[in-house]
């Protein structure tokens, strides 16, 4: 069973097992301006399934880490559709990957990325059509390296990777999403401000480490509020292997620690909003795919549906026209071409925007509700700003096809890569 983000399920996990059979569904789609990838056309269409027109062979560069099953599945699907993919795993740098950047007087600038096992990866002169920064990871260094040397080397390598992104930023390349834009768009309060400007309803929100402000805000919320981190984190105990996550939690005044501890970190505080159910929207250009999440059907999912996601129903949801227009306006204002958005559906019918994840998980929507997201996402990366869904009888490639290919031998492609863990270690 695939899980949503912040649960840290990696390829090879026993949770990557069950896949449902895809069924045709109805979704809201639209068009993006080919002249400017960040300009959306105010035109909507209701489509039953889709397929993009790929009239020439394309090349997609995917930046991620080896265990990211989204990157692996999408890369496999693009190849199955007859196009080229370059998979570049930044965790391999610098121990397995060598980067050379050349700026010489009287010669054209050039760059090469050579994998010690797979050979050359990226040629800046190559015709890369789309760059998908799925997951940027820090360079990896061996434990035997002196901590002082590690810090210096990390700074140099991080600088080189920034130089690489600048070199890759050439005319005609379609970014999903642009790294400079995505960094700003990942800020939660920035998202809320832009959502409000786009006409979306937002919750009152406090980000603070001031004990007086925090206690006053909770009192204004009738003594109970919700608390969540600004950035997700998962810890793993070094001695027992036990995992600790940072789900959204209810907090009352009596739950707060002492002021000295409260001051040590900021956090997000919001009112507890009554929910009917919750909504996830996966955005690919101007094409929106909705998923209804019945979070109130199980107490484990009531506050944060991710915590009880294995125990609740999820099903496709056709977005209301006015909500679709506001979502596209929000994406335009915040500068994103792809993201996963979360909403609360209140009993009175109002949708409340919570947050946007520029590179959120979406394949679980196919696993849980039959939405053909692998087909959509791969077509979108192939066509870029010219992506226009069209009617077909069934998606060509499903996530279940990828799982079968993975079990049939594709999993061996993990061998030799630097396999990193996203989990922080809790001291013994």
Q: What do you see in this structure?
A:
- This protein has a domain of 66 residues.
- Helices cover 25% and strands 26% of the residues.
- It contains 10 helices and 21 strands.
- It is globular, with a radius of gyration of 22 Å.
- The two termini are 31 Å apart.
- The C terminus is likely disordered.
- Approximately how much helix is present in the residues? 10-25%
Mean pLDDT: 83
The number of E-state strands comes to 21
Tally of contiguous helical segments: 10
Uncertain stretches of 5 or more adjacent residues: 6-54, 422-428
Outline type: globular
* Assembly state of the chains shown: single chain
Give the distance, in angstroms, between the N- and C-terminal Cα atoms. 31 Å
| Biggest β-sheet strands, sense, barrel | 5 strands, antiparallel
Gyration radius, to the nearest Å? Answer: 22 Å
Strand portion, in percent? 25-35%
**What strand order characterises the main sheet?**
18-17-16-19-20
> What class do helices, strands and sheet pairing give?
alpha+beta
């Amino acid at each position: 069973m695939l899980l949503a983000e912040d649960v840290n399920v990696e390829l090879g996990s026993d949770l990557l097992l069950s896949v449902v059979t895809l069924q045709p569904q109805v979704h809201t789609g639209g068009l993006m301006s080919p002249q400017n990838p960040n300009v959306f056309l105010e035109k909507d269409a209701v489509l039953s399934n889709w397929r993009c027109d790929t009239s020439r062979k394309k090349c997609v560069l995917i930046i991620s880490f080896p265990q990211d099953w989204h990157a692996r599945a999408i890369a496999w699907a693009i190849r199955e559709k007859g196009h080229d993919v370059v998979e570049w795993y930044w965790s391999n740098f610098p121990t397995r990957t060598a980067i050379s950047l050349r700026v010489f007087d009287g010669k054209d600038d050039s760059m090469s990325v050579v994998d010690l096992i797979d050979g050359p990866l990226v040629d800046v002169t190559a015709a890369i059509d789309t760059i998908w920064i799925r997951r940027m990871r820090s360079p990896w260094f061996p434990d035997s390296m002196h901590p002082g040397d590690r810090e210096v080397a990390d700074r140099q390598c991080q600088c080189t990777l920034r130089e690489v992104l600048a070199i890759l930023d050439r005319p005609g390349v379609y970014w999903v999403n642009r790294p400079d834009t995505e960094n700003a768009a990942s800020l939660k309060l920035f998202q809320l401000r832009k959502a409000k400007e786009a006409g979306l309803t937002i919750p009152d929100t406090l980000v603070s480490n001031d004990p007086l402000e925090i206690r006053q805000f909770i009192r204004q919320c009738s003594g109970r509020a919700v608390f969540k981190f600004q950035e997700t984190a998962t810890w793993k105990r070094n001695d027992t292997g036990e995992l600790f996550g940072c789900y959204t939690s209810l907090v009352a005044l009596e739950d707060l620690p002492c002021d000295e501890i409260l001051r040590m970190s900021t956090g997000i505080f919001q009112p507890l909003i009554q929910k009917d159910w919750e909504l996830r929207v996966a955005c690919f250009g101007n094409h929106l795919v909705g998923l209804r999440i019945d979070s109130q059907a199980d107490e484990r999912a009531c506050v944060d549906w991710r915590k009880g996601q294995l125990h609740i129903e999820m099903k496709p949801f056709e977005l209301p026209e006015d909500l679709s227009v506001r979502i596209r306006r929000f994406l335009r204002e915040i500068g994103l071409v792809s993201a996963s958005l979360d909403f609360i559906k209140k009993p009175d019918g109002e949708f409340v925007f919570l947050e946007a994840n520029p590179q959120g998980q979406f394949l679980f929507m196919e696993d849980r509700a039959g939405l053909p997201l692998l087909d959509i996402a791969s077509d979108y990366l192939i066509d870029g700003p010219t992506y226009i869904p069209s009617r077909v009888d069934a998606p060509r490639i499903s996530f279940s096809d990828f799982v079968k290919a993975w079990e049939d031998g594709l999993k061996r492609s993990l061998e030799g890569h630097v396999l990193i863990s996203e989990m922080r270690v809790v001291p013994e």
